[in-house]
Design goal:
182 residues; alpha/beta; eight-stranded mixed beta sheet; two-stranded antiparallel ribbon; 5 helices; 10 strands; 23% helix; globular
Length: 182
């Protein structure tokens, strides 16, 4: 039986250089999901056409994204952080079965070609919400905030962050403590 195709579109982010929390999370998530899915990650800022990360993860330049979706069924497309892929790509293609937005931040990144959408893309999201199956957030608090702010009918799911927590067990963790940096 062939595996389903899962694509991530990570906007202007690039994997495999200096990776931070969200990028590390994506690589860890892909590592686990690659047991069940064929995975390709697309990024607009990748300087080359394609590279392989950690020997298993195909990372392609997003200029090849539309060609990919015309030639492959994409069972799940996860758009990470950015709303601009809805402007930059034709996502109405019948080969894209389900679109999921994955928010790592307080709101969506609404930058596109050097300009910002107003209100973190709130009004733009209203215009595209029928194309989106689910919005994924890191915490219930985060999901509740985004539901209120974006006033959308899209369903929300919480998955947590895929960053491997500190390996140093000598550090005492404080229960219910949250430290946020971005």
């Amino acid at each position: 039986m062939s595996m389903k195709n899962l694509c991530f579109h990570i906007g202007y982010s690039v994997l495999g250089g200096v990776d931070y929390g969200s990028e590390i999370s994506l690589i860890n998530l892909c590592r686990e999901l690659s047991k069940f899915y064929n995975i390709v990650v697309f990024s607009l800022n990748l300087p080359e056409k394609e590279k392989i990360i950690d020997g298993f993860l195909v990372h392609r330049n997003a200029v090849f994204f539309e060609e990919y979706i015309k030639n492959n069924v994409v069972d799940f497309l996860v758009i990470s952080r950015y709303l601009y892929p809805f402007l930059y790509h034709d996502l109405s293609h019948h080969n894209v079965k389900k679109i999921i937005l994955w928010s790592h931040d307080v709101g969506f990144q609404s930058a596109f070609e050097g300009k910002q959408m107003r209100d973190m893309g709130k009004h733009f999201l209203k215009n595209i919400e029928d194309k989106i199956s689910t919005i994924v957030c890191l915490t219930d608090f985060h999901a509740d905030f985004m539901k209120r702010y974006y006033e959308t009918k899209i369903s929300f799911k919480t998955i947590g962050h895929g960053v491997n927590e500190m390996n140093d067990n000598s550090i005492n963790k404080v229960k219910h403590r949250f430290i946020y940096t971005s």
